[in-house]
């Protein structure tokens, strides 16, 4: 009789506790949404010679980095994939905008390369897939890498641009924003979306980074940021949606018009394309060469020091800070030029006024970085950091367990409003009262269970068995919840 009473009491204590962890987990970690936006080629200082009221307002209400340092090679697909994976380019394997095959000589341009799954899926999972595997709802619009399949899985909600897409049309930009904010975040309740705009890169290449055309395009970007934030507000998402705006690289002016001695490989004494099996040149300031069998040393010696603004490295001797030497896709000789110069094969055939692809230490290669939303501090300017760290930040905000990566939350966590949560910031000294309460609740529940089991055992075998089963399940629940 006494035992039965204890069993009932224990059940009464346990019952509310059984439901607690789920509520508790929700209370301890509130998952806000995250929108990652890239404006291709938006250099860190592009807001200095243009009025950008919307970007300024966003900086007041959020976080701004003085600049960020992209991965090398500072071109679109490789650096975007570093944002998505937290890995340096030599580790994620998307080493160039172009896919190529050195035995067939086949090359694919940026757009076609988007559809070569094996090129993107080289062992590093982008955050989309990781988030989906952990139960989050994910979308991506036009972001490099969106079209590919990773370990058999694609981004569930996605839009890939058509082949001849006009990346500059402001009307289309607004449609895309309406889709992402209105349909994806609001109607479909997605947790994470990446969104890509092809400007001001295109204008920067065509007219140069100092041109009035580039300034005008930065105003278009600013209007777009204003529109985006207005839409977020309109759909009542301001309190749950974090937004990170950054870019893949910067832009610098190409020197020409007889001002400088161009780098033209075929004109370099002792260098002969006949000694080369495969080459990737005429692509801005960088290049890669695969010399014929036994010709590596000859090619290397001919090129090394041949032009004062041309850097020539054997792949394994690349400067360590570039993290661009280990991957098997990299060819044995890697070339890159100083700011202002591009690498030509036979003739100067490159006519862009602006270029990127230079050393990531060059200030003109640095992108901007802004963030705003419920998890970010306000009116804070932070010191520069490498974009390889953005991945850890995003995983932390989304509350997902990251894959192996090359970055660290260390570099960015000071921009977050400190809140107790699971993950890398969890520090025993900072255990909140809340966590203590949850801990005690669990302990109480466990003790109650032990008591209940002991007590009910004496009532009847059948009853005890039923009681144990349900309460054992309750303990399992507790154990699965991370504090
Ligand atoms: C390049 O082409 C050759 C010959 O068709 C093929 O064997 C090889 O697998 C290809 N390599 C890549 C990276 O596609
Ligand atoms: C990555 O690509 C390299 C070269 O194309 C290939 O040898 C390697 O097997 C790939 N690794 C994975 C995990 O896909
Ligand atoms: C921009 O796109 C809209 C809608 O697709 C189209 O109607 C308009 O003509 C385009 N504007 C330009 C300048 O191409
Ligand atoms: C994190 O930051 C601290 C202090 O800035 C530094 O000492 C530590 O090595 C960093 N940890 C990692 C893993 O980068
Ligand atoms: Zn780019």
TrEMBL record:
Residues 1-19 form the signal peptide. Coiled coil: none annotated. It holds the Pfam family Phosphodiest. The chain crosses the membrane at residues 433-459. CDD domains: Enpp. This is Ectonucleotide pyrophosphatase/phosphodiesterase family member 7-like. Keywords: Membrane, Signal, Transmembrane, Transmembrane helix.
């Amino acid at each position: 009789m006494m035992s039965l009473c204890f069993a009932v009491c224990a059940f009464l204590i346990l019952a509310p506790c059984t439901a607690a962890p789920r509520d508790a987990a929700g209370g301890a970690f509130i998952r806000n949404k995250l929108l990652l936006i890239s404006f291709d080629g938006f250099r860190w200082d592009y807001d200095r010679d243009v009025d950008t009221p919307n970007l300024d307002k966003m900086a007041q209400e959020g976080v701004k980095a003085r600049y960020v340092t992209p991965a090398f090679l500072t071109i679109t697909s490789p650096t975007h994939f570093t944002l998505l994976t937290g890995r340096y380019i030599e580790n994620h394997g998307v080493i160039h905008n172009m896919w190529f095959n050195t035995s067939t000589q086949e090359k694919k341009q940026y757009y076609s390369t988007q559809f070569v799954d094996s090129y993107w899926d080289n062992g590093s999972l982008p955050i989309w897939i990781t988030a989906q595997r952990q139960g989050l709802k994910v979308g991506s619009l036009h972001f490099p890498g969106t079209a590919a399949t990773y370990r058999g899985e694609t981004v569930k909600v996605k839009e890939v641009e058509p082949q001849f897409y006009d990346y500059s049309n402001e009307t289309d930009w607004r449609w895309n924003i309406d889709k992402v904010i209105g349909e994806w975040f609001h109607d479909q309740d997605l947790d994470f979306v990446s969104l890509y705009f092809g400007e001001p890169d295109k204008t920067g290449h065509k007219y140069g980074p100092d041109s009035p055309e580039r300034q005008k395009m930065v105003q278009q970007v600013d209007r777009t940021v204003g529109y985006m934030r207005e839409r977020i507000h309109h759909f009542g998402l301001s309190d749950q949606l974090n937004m990170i705006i950054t870019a893949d690289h910067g832009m610098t002016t190409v020197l020409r018009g007889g001002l400088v001695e161009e780098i033209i490989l075929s004109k370099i004494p002792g260098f002969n394309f006949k000694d080369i099996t495969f080459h990737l040149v005429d692509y801005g300031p960088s290049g890669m060469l695969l010399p014929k069998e036994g010709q590596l040393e000859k090619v290397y010696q001919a090129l090394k020091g041949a032009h004062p603004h041309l850097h020539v490295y054997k792949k394994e001797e690349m400067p360590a800070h570039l993290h661009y030497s280990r991957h098997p896709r990299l060819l044995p000789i890697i070339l890159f030029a100083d700011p202002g110069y591009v690498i030509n094969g036979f003739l100067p055939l490159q006519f862009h006024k602006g270029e990127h692809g230079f050393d990531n230490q060059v200030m003109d290669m640095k992108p901007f970085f802004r963030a705003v939303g419920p998890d970010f501090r306000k009116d804070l300017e932070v010191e520069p950091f490498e974009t390889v760290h953005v991945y850890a930040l995003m995983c932390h905000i989304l509350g997902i367990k990251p894959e192996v990566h090359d970055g660290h939350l260390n570099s960015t966590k000071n921009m977050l409003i400190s809140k107790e949560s699971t993950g890398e910031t969890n520090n025993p000294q900072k255990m909140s009262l809340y966590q203590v309460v949850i801990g005690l609740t669990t302990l109480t529940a466990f003790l109650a269970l032990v008591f209940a089991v002991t007590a009910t055992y004496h009532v009847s075998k059948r009853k005890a068995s039923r009681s144990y089963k349900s309460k054992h399940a309750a303990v399992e629940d507790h154990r699965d919840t991370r504090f």
